[in-house]
Amino acid sequence: MAADQENTPHAAETAPLAPLPDHRNVNTGWWQELWRRHAHITTPLRQRGFTCDVEFGLSAYIVRVSLPDDSYLIISPPQEPPSDRPPGDPEGWIVTRERVSERSSLFERIYDSAPPAYPSRAPQPEALHGGSAEPLIAAIDQHLDQLGLLPSSAPSTGERSVIAATSPHHDSKAPVASDSGGHAPVYAYGDALLALTDQLNGTESPADAAALLHQVLDPANGLLERLGEFFEAAAEKAKDSEEDDGFDLSYDLADAAAGVRTLTEALDTAEARMRALTPLAPAPQLPLSPVRAPSPPPRPLPATPPRHTR
What we know:
By secondary structure, the protein is an alpha+beta fold. The chain has eleven helices and five strands; from the N terminus they run ααααβββββααααααα. 41% of the residues lie in helices and 10% in strands. It has a five-stranded antiparallel β-sheet. The N and C termini lie far apart (100 Å).
């Protein structure tokens, strides 16, 4: 991907990079922009041979890193409450190592530089680093090295400094979410859904369309389920005000959450029905009629001979 090469020129000179993730979003503009915004996180990890991806978490975009023991890292901004900063530039990072399988499950927190979710909770020692990438990568290196999961070819500290110094993370030309000052706001979630709609418009088979419907209608992790959770959280937030209108608003938002879940139930078979549709066969091409030569112009009538008069 050209954008990947442009965003990691110095990194490419110091170590080979792990391949990009293998999915169709890699070729879309919106995903490439997300990838560019997270290059200061993904590039040093790809130098260590780890495949990374950028995907949507509970309320913001996260970086998922595959590890050689079938576990994975989740590197995310604050999710609860969600961050209002643009993707890739949060007020802090949270890193967890996780594994979910039939035999065992794993969850451990490696790093937390995010502000505490509640004022009464003390911040973690890493909070002084905020959204800086270099101490985050260093903490991951240390932890994975202790577990024996860090490749011996990992870059040195000096190389990590070069990567951080040349990161495109703070690109002055990048759009920033704003509600004032003459800048158009960035709607990352609306743009992501718009990109999904564009993919749906470009599908060539009902099976491809059904796969996109699954992203929206899956009862456990689909977009509608997450939207219902969002309205429920908003209802609780409105109720916290302890004002009359806050309680009224919480009821409206709770009704919205119930409506979204009713919609999910009403469309529970839509994916299967879409998948069962028969693809349209291409219209047969009719043979082209031979081009006829134009008819010759009509012959002029012979001139009437003059009459002889005596």
